[in-house]
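Need residues for this backbone.
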């Protein structure tokens, strides 16, 4: 999620809960019986999911409404983009968190959001690697893949009330997210160069240090640890666990 103020995050959370709850209530009321209610609620959930994912560029503008206007930072960003080459539009905004995110279902609508907290703490070489990583997410349609999986999961949940299905489906989703992070790192190395991608990951590992035992928790995490990502980039052998 794009870093923002606590108030905007709260408003966004309440909006999503209200709209999602409204969709489920409306579809249940429109159904002639319980069997059709489950089906209509599933369809309503899919429509809601599509609206959420497709509307992320607009949501991102709400969560990060104020671009960074510092001339030195903007000049540095322009220089980095010139060095990198063809990229999705990059939005630099003021926030102390150290984050970079890509939004948009389709490559044509994808946007990259970078906080000044991350921008100021990384070298030019590392930032070029980050640009390669985020652009790979857009080029390989990773957000679209996540949306399709969410739709399949919603349909499967409607067909099966088993708790085991939910647990297995959720763990598979986490595994898919980790795999896409490895893919983005590998793609970033192709787009920005192996040295830039490695530098970016090493600098992130300094900003976000992790203990050796953290890797044993990756099965319940959406992202592999940075040491795991570095090792996968260097050996070309990603480890999902």
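Answer:
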């Amino acid at each position: 999620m794009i870093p923002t103020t606590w108030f905007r995050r709260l408003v966004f959370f309440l909006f999503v809960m209200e709209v999602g709850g409204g969709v489920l209530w409306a579809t249940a009321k429109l159904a002639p019986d319980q069997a059709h209610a489950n089906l209509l609620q599933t369809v309503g959930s899919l429509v809601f999911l599509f609206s959420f994912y497709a509307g992320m560029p607009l949501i991102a503008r709400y969560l990060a409404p104020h671009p960074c206007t510092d001339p030195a930072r903007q000049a540095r960003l322009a220089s980095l983009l010139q060095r990198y080459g063809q990229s999705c539009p990059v939005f630099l905004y003021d926030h102390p968190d150290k984050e970079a995110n890509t939004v948009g279902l389709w490559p044509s609508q994808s946007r990259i959001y970078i906080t000044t907290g991350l921008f100021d703490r990384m070298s030019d070489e590392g930032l070029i690697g980050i640009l390669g990583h985020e652009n790979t997410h857009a080029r390989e349609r990773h957000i679209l893949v996540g949306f399709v999986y969410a739709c399949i999961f919603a349909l499967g949940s409607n067909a099966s009330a088993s708790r085991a299905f939910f647990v297995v489906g959720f763990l598979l989703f986490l595994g898919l997210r980790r795999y896409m992070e490895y893919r983005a790192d590998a793609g970033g190395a192709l787009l920005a160069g192996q040295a830039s991608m490695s530098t970016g990951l090493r600098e992130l590992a300094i900003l976000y240090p992790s203990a050796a035992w953290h890797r044993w928790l990756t099965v319940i995490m959406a992202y592999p640890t940075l040491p795991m990502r570095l090792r996968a980039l260097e050996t070309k052998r990603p480890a999902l666990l």
